[in-house]
Design a protein that fits this description.
The protein has about 150 residues and is of the alpha+beta class. It is built from 5 helices and 4 strands, in the order H-E-E-E-H-H-H-H-E. Helix 1 packs across helix 2, helix 2 packs parallel to helix 5 and helix 3 packs antiparallel against helix 5. The protein is globular.
């Protein structure tokens, strides 16, 4: 358990201090804002598609370490995936976060995102970890209004 927690903290800090794909995309096909009124996290997600494939995905904004690291890892994991693959990954990620803390994790479905399994121990942080994902999902569904976790 201690090794998992250390890995979680290490990855979280790395993605918070050095977020991947933290920039606006001027030629994005979708630009959607996400907001968590509970803690004030606010991100904009940018998506550029080529056919059915996510060619580029990035984000800007401010939030806690969990939300920023999750957005960073999300953008890294989704480049090159189809829209359906992105939706499926979000479904598995969300299922992992909302499962009991002692539930087995199917690493074949969440991959590197498994480091966020520690969030299950802090239910109030689940909205932080999923804010960018919900925002992305709404964009892919064509919902361009602000995504809120409330």
């Amino acid at each position: 358990m201690q090794n998992k927690r250390a890995l979680y903290e290490e990855v979280l800090l790395d993605h918070t201090k050095h977020p991947r794909n933290f920039r606006a995309l001027a030629d994005a096909d979708y630009t959607v804002e996400g907001y968590n009124p509970l803690c004030g996290d606010q991100f904009t997600v940018y998506i550029k598609l080529k056919d059915d494939i996510i060619e580029e995905v990035s984000f800007t904004g401010n939030g806690c370490a969990v939300s920023k690291a999750s957005a960073s890892m999300m953008t890294s994991q989704l480049k090159g995936r189809t829209i359906e693959q992105a939706k499926s990954l979000f479904k598995h990620f969300h299922r992992m976060l909302t499962s009991p803390p002692d539930a087995e994790i199917d690493e074949s479905t969440v991959g590197k995102l498994r480091v966020f399994s520690g969030v299950r121990e802090y239910p109030m942080r689940i909205k932080c970890a999923t804010l960018a994902w919900h925002t992305l999902a709404n964009a892919l569904e064509g919902k361009e209004n602000t995504t809120s976790t409330e």
